[in-house]
Amino acid sequence: MSSTEASTASGKGLTLTQWLVMAVASIGFLFDTYELLMTPLVGVPAIAELLKLPPNHPEVTAWMGRMLWMTALCGGIFGLIGGWLIDRFGRKRILALSIFVYALSPFAAAYSTTLSAFVFFRCTTFIGVCVEFVAAITWLAELFPQNRKKILGWTQAFASLGGVLVTSVAAWINLHSASLPALGVPEAFSAHAPWRYLLMTGLLPAIPIALCLPFVPESKIWKEKRLAGTLKRPSFGELFAPELRRTTLVTAALSACAYAAAFGALQITTRSIVPGLPELKQQQAEIGPLRAEAGKLNAEMDKVMPAFQQATKDIPGLDAVVADRAKNRIAFRGAMKAGNSNVVGSLTAGFKQLGTKLDELTASKPEAKQSVLEREKILKALGDNREKQLPLQSAINARGEQVQLRQETGGLLGRILLAILVVFIASSRTLLRVFIVPGLIVVPVTYFALYHQSANVFSAGIFCCGLLVVAQFSYFGEYLPRVFPLHLRGTGGSFATNVGGRMIGTSAAFLTTNVIAPMFSAKPTADHYAMAAGLVGTSVFVLALIFSAALPEPKAQTVEER
After folding, report:
1. How far does CA 360 lie from the centroid of its chain?
2. Per-residue pLDDT at 6
3. Which of 4, 201, 388, 522 sits a CA distance of 20 to 30 A from 443?
């Protein structure tokens, strides 16, 4: 028995090595959530800038949807491969590699100058997150076999802090991005774009992990069997052998239900459902015509863009001049708001100089200049439109942030509650049903009834929904290492979590917003999205209750014996 195991088994206080192990795992869990929840914060502004389109353009929205399913697909497929690597090459080694992948990927994405590069690095980020979770729960379960339940329960609670942290960091960056050091990106892009700075913070977990890694051990039982030559080779096919088929399929199905509840209901709440709360009716009534106007302007933009894109390809240097004119206009708008006449005068003079450059570049191609000017005219109209929407949208966003905070707080309490109950409730089925059965009532009541009452009571319902859904994520983190044999622990856990949960379960977001909500109306409103989220959320809780009847109880052997 290693010192890590011995101290835990004897009931003594944790050693420095044990604290380091827990710190590495906790940092990994926290930044799992941090990295994933960056996506809704950076996705739209990044895609808009890279495509040179306004944020509310339909093409930006379409690419945001494409990126979500592409990352989920990559996470499922490569996450499963990562599970095999965990069993083949070691828990600690793959854990460290996965954390470095998801830490370096967003940093690389921050310097993206093409949409393909941005999407690629978001996919690799998702892959790193998917592999890290399985590696971490397997590593902890084998290093702390006696106190496995307590250690896994409390370290996973840090995952719920990731959402609060990334939201806070994003808010700070939005306020201070203009004063931060300029980034080394081509002139056609903003050197102070907040989304780029936020992505760069994804590098943070790599620093403490690199410092701690030399001082934390590999899983003792895995290492001993590997050195003795008795460790079986992992096999995907073995997951579906008669003795494991039921475990594999049921855990994947239950994991899919948990993620479906999260992505098919909770994750779309802030964006699609909060705007319909009774307190926001006036804002919705006023913002509707403005959005219709923006839609018409975006349609005009679609007609202009082919000629503009061709012009930037045919005339060297035109793209840079257009970018400088855009930066000048943005700065001019800000100076006008601030009433800074000196800056306004300087920017006006600069814009004239840029106009001269534009005339020189397009002297032989007047149609190119015309496409530039038409695009700028539409962009100005869109900018004016956004300014009119801003106070209305700010009120909606503020309410959404309040609801989101309630959800995150509920999720944190759910993980803490799981960490407490897992010690006292022996039956795995009973423990899971503690969170499933109340959800059969809480989810439909929240989305079908409380939503129509007031923001405060709806937020209370979302708090309870967050508690019941997120607790299930911690549940599987503790349960999965106990039901798969040593040589398949990473592979089996990865199939359940990444294929069942992150690949299949997350597709519920598409089901809610693109399939069910449009059944109520060709142009769904917040009310329709609430109905769809309630139907999806309730349905997956019903399915989870049914599947829980087939959930195998872990065998009596310890983690080492399996």
Report:
1. 46
2. 43
3. 522
